[in-house]
Q: What sequence folds into this?
């Protein structure tokens, strides 16, 4: 069975993370290799670790008309939507295609569970969520997508994809299928995850949280640093108006079938997703200039992924993880790193693999330990999640396919 | 929009009162419900996994196994979409209670069971399935949105797709708010329909509210008490071998489903 994919134009995109608000802040931080991680100051008795926190969320509630959705995760979504004129781009698309001809697919791992956690800390009579949090709209995995659908006035299919850390990469695959089949003409994709007790203490219970800022692909790496982020992209068919836009060439997906919380050390599932992306994009490994790796700084992910790079790619392919800058934004990692990859394509540079002082000997010559100025025409972004959920995006500059 | 055409190769169903699709057929035929059971067997899982998995995962796996078995397909190469409005509510309640108490006592197993794609993970691991798996949510419209997603995957990539949609009873303060009162799961194996002589579903998005032919009162109660039970109008079409209905596919959209049987 030959997989096909319709190449699409990425006509607008934006990211908000610990690196700052919008593309300019991300480009500056990447350029200077400036990490957004800070000592954990989230919650009352913070675990001794480092986090990627977006400042100011606490003091900016949603406007009254969206009050039912007010919570940290949706505030972060709102903040993210307002960067880089993204809402204006969606307005233009809505006028062109009609609201019902635009789909919304967002990834999130924990949605607004932070609000549910807060409700349980302030229970009335130990059995009822407090009045201010007694709102059905936020205590559901669909909270984010329902809110953004209302905020953007999107009337087409509206889907939350929640496959842990691959969530906001898989949204690209879902959007491509809807556009290819003619069910919609455009799609807003993206993802938002915010800091909460569930992930900080959950990953801590799995002994995956680093006590120091995370060091992807370092020989002495000690685990992940959790971050939060919001990112969005607008996907449209390629046409006369979209000639200058970057391209989504294809999305690969697979399952590890190995373990709930650790990747297959052989990297079979990751390699299947990679192969699927290459097949759908109709490219081969020699054409891949850059890969933004999943690179979480967990022992097992980085060992598996370094071996996959060494096994499959020629030395001309440059690779790096940018999680030492942003932290691991979990369900938002797919979109945040897709945006970083789009910036690499647009600006012509390979972001350095920050955070590694002593590279793991398993890392091959492919690794860019510092920023490199070079043309990047075709690039991949890897996202691998709990439950063995893998996704790989193939992106290209408009020049590469002109 | 373009109409999607799929055929249904397998059907799975599990709730305490309806433990498979045949039980639903008997209900529609006017037979009385049998005594409720307490727990799905979920025999696709190893004993160890069955012990570790919460009810939400067991219900999803049981329904999935029934549908795949009826389809005669091999689960190891079947793409899958697991839909749920709320995920495993007992696990969410547990997580929030521990986090409100002594958060460092959180169980690592219960944390990994808390991800929305936990059922997809258990399923693909149990079946050595490397095909794409997804876990989706669309609130009360999760079944309709999941059916759309499964049909889109089937038609876009010309492959059979397993759809599972399940929710569990609410627990604790979260349960009080949400009002989900029973466990309910269903599953379908759908594939693109090229052969006009095979009974098929035609799916199209419409700006309409959900509607369906009359169903037994108990079905309407289940649909009120569990968002995943909104599959029942569609399962009734499959049981009757014809008809049409509109399922919620989002806050604003309906998914019009027509079962066509043409010689």
A:
């Amino acid at each position: 069975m030959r997989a096909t994919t319709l190449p699409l134009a990425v006509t607008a995109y934006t990211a908000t993370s610990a690196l700052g608000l919008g593309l300019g802040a991300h480009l500056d931080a990447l350029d200077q290799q400036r990490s957004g991680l800070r000592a954990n100051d989230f919650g009352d008795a913070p675990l001794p670790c480092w986090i990627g926190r977006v400042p100011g969320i606490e003091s900016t509630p949603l406007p009254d008309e969206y009050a039912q959705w007010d919570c940290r995760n949706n505030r972060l979504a709102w903040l993210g939507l307002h960067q880089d004129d993204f809402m204006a781009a969606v307005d233009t698309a809505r006028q062109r295609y009609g609201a019902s001809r635009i789909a919304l697919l967002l990834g999130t791992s924990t949605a607004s569970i932070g609000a549910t956690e807060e409700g349980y800390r302030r229970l009335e009579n130990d059995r009822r969520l407090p009045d201010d949090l007694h709102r059905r709209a936020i205590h559901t995995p669909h909270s984010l997508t329902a809110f953004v659908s209302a905020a953007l006035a999107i009337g087409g299919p509206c889907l939350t994809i929640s496959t842990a850390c691959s969530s906001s990469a898989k949204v690209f695959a879902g959007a491509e299928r809807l556009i290819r089949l003619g069910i919609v003409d455009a799609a807003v994709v993206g993802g938002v995850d915010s800091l909460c007790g569930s992930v900080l203490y959950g990953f801590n219970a799995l002994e995956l949280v680093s006590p120091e800022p995370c060091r992807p692909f370092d020989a002495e790496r000690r685990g992940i640093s959790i971050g939060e982020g919001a990112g969005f992209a607008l996907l449209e068919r390629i046409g006369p108006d979209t000639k200058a836009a970057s391209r989504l060439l294809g999305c690969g997906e697979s399952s590890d079938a190995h373990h709930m919380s650790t990747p297959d050390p052989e990297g079979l599932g990751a390699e299947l997703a990679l192969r699927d992306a290459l097949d759908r994009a109709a490219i081969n490994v020699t054409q891949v200039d850059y890969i933004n790796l999943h690179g979480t700084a967990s022992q097992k992910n980085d060992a598996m992924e370094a071996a996959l790079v060494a096994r499959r790619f020629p030395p001309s392919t440059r690779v790096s993880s940018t999680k030492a800058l942003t932290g691991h934004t979990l369900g938002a990692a797919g979109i945040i790193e897709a945006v970083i990859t789009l910036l690499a394509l647009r600006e012509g540079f390979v972001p350095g693999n920050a955070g590694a002082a002593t590279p793991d000997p398993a890392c091959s010559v492919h690794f860019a330990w510092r920023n490199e100025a070079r043309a990047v025409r075709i690039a991949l972004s890897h996202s691998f999640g709990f439950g063995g959920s893998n996704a790989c995006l193939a992106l290209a500059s408009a020049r590469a396919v002109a | 929009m373009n109409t999607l055409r799929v055929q249904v190769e397998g059907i799975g169903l599990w709730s305490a009162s309806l433990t498979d699709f045949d039980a639903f057929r008997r209900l529609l035929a006017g037979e009385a419900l049998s005594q409720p059971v307490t727990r799905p067997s979920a025999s696709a899982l190893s004993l160890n996994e069955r012990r570790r998995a919460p009810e939400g995962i067991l219900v999803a796996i049981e329904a999935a196994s029934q549908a795949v078995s009826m389809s005669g397909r091999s689960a190891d190469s079947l793409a899958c979409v697991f839909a749920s409005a709320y995920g495993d509510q007992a696990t969410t309640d547990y997580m929030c209670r521990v986090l409100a108490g002594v958060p460092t006592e959180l169980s690592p197993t219960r944390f990994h069971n808390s991800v929305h794609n936990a059922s997809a993970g258990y399923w693909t691991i149990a079946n050595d399935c490397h095909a794409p798996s997804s876990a989706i949510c669309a609130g009360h419209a999760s079944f309709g949105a999941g059916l759309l997603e499964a049909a889109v995957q089937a038609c876009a990539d010309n492959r059979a797709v397993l759809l599972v949609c399940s929710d569990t009873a609410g627990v604790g303060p979260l349960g009080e708010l949400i009002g989900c009162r029973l466990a309910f799961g269903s599953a379908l194996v759908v594939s693109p329909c090229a052969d006009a002589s095979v009974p098929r579903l035609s799916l199209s998005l419409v700006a309409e509210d959900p509607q369906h032919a009359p169903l037994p009162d108990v079905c309407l109660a289940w649909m009120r008490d569990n968002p995943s039970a909104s599959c029942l109008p569609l399962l009734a079409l499959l049981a009757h071998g014809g008809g049409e209905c509109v399922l919620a596919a989002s806050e604003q959209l309906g998914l019009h489903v027509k079962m066509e049987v043409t010689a």
Observations:
- Residues 346 and 397 of chain A are 7 Å apart (CA to CA).
